[in-house]
Amino acid sequence: xxxxxxxxxxxxxxxxxxxxxxxxxxxxxxxxxxxxxxxxxxxxxxxxxxxxxxxxxxxxxxxxxxxxxxxxxxxxxxxxxxxxxxxxxxxxxxxxxxxxxxxxxxxxxxxxxxxxxxxxxxxxxxxxxxxxxxxxxxxxxxxxxxxxxxxxxxxxxxxxxxxxxxxxxxxxxxxxxxxxxxxxxxxxxxxxxxxxxxxxxxxxxxxxxxxxxxxxxxxxxxxxxxxxxxxxxxxxxxxxxxxxxxxxxxxxxxxxxxxxxxxxxxxxxx
Length: 270
Description:
- The protein is of the alpha/beta class and 270 residues long.
- It contains nine helices and nine strands.
- It has helices at 12-28, 63-73, 88-96, 129-138, 164-168, 175-188, 213-223, 240-249, 263-269, and strands at residues 3-7, 33-39, 54-58, 80-83, 101-106, 118-121, 196-201, 229-234, 254-256.
- It is elongated and about 60 Å long.
């Protein structure tokens, strides 16, 4: 395998869930050029990953930007592409990449399998997404220590210590992002000896995943009755209207980190 392409365009949690499968591909094909196609808004999770050779970013928004993205994909002659997304858009992207082998699950929620020449039976929905994605990697013979996950922490007898988290889900936080989080805390007057942080992340793309802002405000007021607690609102620019409502309802008792720092600086803060 000379050139191998991963397609997982979005969303943030799904990209993170794909990291173990991607590392399994790297371990199995150490000399391959391993690339990942992803929407730019989620690409920060992948930048700086030493086991990835290339991150090909897509600015979602118009047919023109999609055309440019496909042209960048086609600069490389891919031996295989794995579509971990399973949507019509991602399946078409895999096919348009020009790869010799297009691999994905079948059936899918959308008819993405129309674009695959190698179809892998999809696991049941009670199977964790991490395991389903890893199953696609094993189609190419990929293996990764500790996979598939047996999740012993659900058994009531977790091992001590539990090491798999950082190894399976690596996050590369730059020095700049670490310093940005530290500067922000200093600006708020955070005392590392006296204060404990409670972080509230109120925003979600789907309305069904949103808790009412009045509840967040009520919780913030309750938490701030303790002198040692400081409540922080996080999120990207899209979260700011929700955070405005929460801050107003909380009577100014929260610290605003929403829209103030990058994705990975927010990760460092957490």
